[in-house]
């Protein structure tokens, strides 16, 4: 892990609740993997004091992109970062997704800002000629910001929203079991952004024998494993084990995570 002062190429509002930031990472020597994150300083005046973890939305040769939800003091402060400023960020951090080279088709199930996390998986799948099917869930159609981006990679995208009354668990389950599984041989599943959809993904993966991974979204203080603010439980050899999401994850095997 390294600390960088990365030039900001753009930072703009793309919907009522979401902003999109592009950062120059040409100075970085290490590769960034889908599912990894950076710990971002939100303002130069150290207010708020704690950094905020942002998962990577898009990965390019000399740039990375973040799609972030403006929710509290930290992310509100980030909206004041302008083109030409430098972003103080630590990373890349954590364990990313493992995308199997032999996978023919993968399934993404994402909700809200979790869509941004899985967008990088769709990008990686496209680059290795793996087909992607995605169920994207959000409050409104306006929040389905990554849908067109995934479709550019040839993904089959199913969009469900609270606005349309289509985002409940049973509706999503119907889409997966009626529209997706009968028409595609799914080699692996990936999920992020919703506990209820994550539990559904666990159930479907178990019933159909599909391996999968989940990226957990937990509050982090240090992102280095020292503060134990992001501890969660996983199943290990028929016992529960406490792990730190920041350094042991944020990506874990789907069948091992205890989702409350």
Task: Describe what this molecule looks like in 3D.
The chain is α/β, with parallel strands linked by helices. About 20% of the residues lie in helices and about 35% in strands. It has six helices and 15 strands. The strands form three sheets. The protein has a seven-stranded antiparallel β-sheet. Strands 10-9-8-11-12-15 form a six-stranded mixed β-sheet, with helices on both faces. Strands 13-14 form a two-stranded antiparallel sheet. Strand 5 (about 60) and strand 6 (about 65-70) form a beta hairpin. The chain is globular and about 50 Å long. The two termini are about 30 Å apart. The model has no long low-confidence stretch (mean pLDDT about 95).
Biggest sheet record:
7 strands, antiparallel
Spatial sequence of strands, sheet with the most strands: 4-3-7-1-2-6-5
Ranges with pLDDT <50 over ≥5 residues?
none
How much of the sequence lies in strands comes to: 25-35%
- Spatial gap, N to C terminus: 31 Å
Mean pLDDT: 93
Number of strands: 15
* Helix/strand order, N-terminal first: EEEEEEHEEHEHEHEHEEEHE
Molecular shape? globular
Number of helices: 6
Helix content: 10-25%
Strand pairing plus helix content: what structural class? alpha/beta
User: Compute the gyration radius: what is it?
Assistant: 18 Å
* Oligomeric state, counting identical vs distinct chains: single chain
